[in-house]
């Protein structure tokens, strides 16, 4: 009996697999699904291109309501939203080829409630991401410090934020984990240059040299907002006198300007003979026979 039952099942399976109507139905559904996927990809690219062109027109417009940083952030966010919406609609359309989508949506409320308890962190990420963008805490292109990560913001999404460090690493942070942010790109920066000279050098001469150098180099840096200030002696170290120079510059340009000022001051000190302190070793040689020296007249 078992052999007859197995043979009957095999026969029915063979008839099903060799039925041309079945293969025709599979072919039609496969072509529909392929068309849905291709259509979703095309629509996504068209919408993203439309958004990019819309922002390009806003850049050329004489009336600008948003800054470039803000526009770049919103453009990236809209790209993410378009991708999520298009892919979700494509998924529902594909599922409608196999199941009753209305019944599926009707049961989605109960299923969504069950999933919601397990996806609280996801909801928290999205809400936090919304407030980051709404409050303009930071934007794409800003240099920020988030926790132990520091770098330029590559992307702000509804769920995650991407920060690229200066060494090339890309840090992907859930928005809900962003508790404290230090934004270096909002206000002007301060370039601080500390110059050390030896105690034996003339402080007044060194200060005049520094003032002359920063005055001459000021025209070379359009990033400077205010003229540099030579504050004078900042600290007296164990073997050095530290003099400080400060300059208010545009955001995130203080590293470059500080390096250039140090280079110019060092070159001028070398010309003027101003010595910069360096570690020294003093060797005291004692006579092996001090008693003999004591007998000498």
Automatic annotation (TrEMBL):
Transmembrane portions of the chain: 76-95, 101-123
UniProt membrane topology term: Multi-pass membrane protein
Alphabetized SUPFAM superfamilies for the sequence: Mechanosensitive channel protein MscS (YggB), C-terminal domain, Mechanosensitive channel protein MscS (YggB), transmembrane region, Sm-like ribonucleoproteins
Residue stretches making up the Mechanosensitive ion channel MscS C-terminal domain: 192-276
Residue span(s) of domain Mechanosensitive ion channel transmembrane helices 2/3: 80-120
Mechanosensitive ion channel MscS domain span: 122-185
Keywords: Cell membrane, Membrane, Transmembrane, Transmembrane helix
Localization per Swiss-Prot or TrEMBL: Cell membrane
Main localization of the protein described in the UniProt heading: membrane
One protein family per Pfam: MS_channel_1st
The keyword Transmembrane belongs to this UniProt entry's keyword annotation: yes
Gene Ontology molecular function: mechanosensitive monoatomic ion channel activity
GO cellular component entries: plasma membrane
Keyword Transcription regulation set for record: no
Family named by the database record: Belongs to the MscS (TC 1.A.23) family.
Function: May play a role in resistance to osmotic downshock.
Stated name of the protein: Mechanosensitive ion channel protein MscS
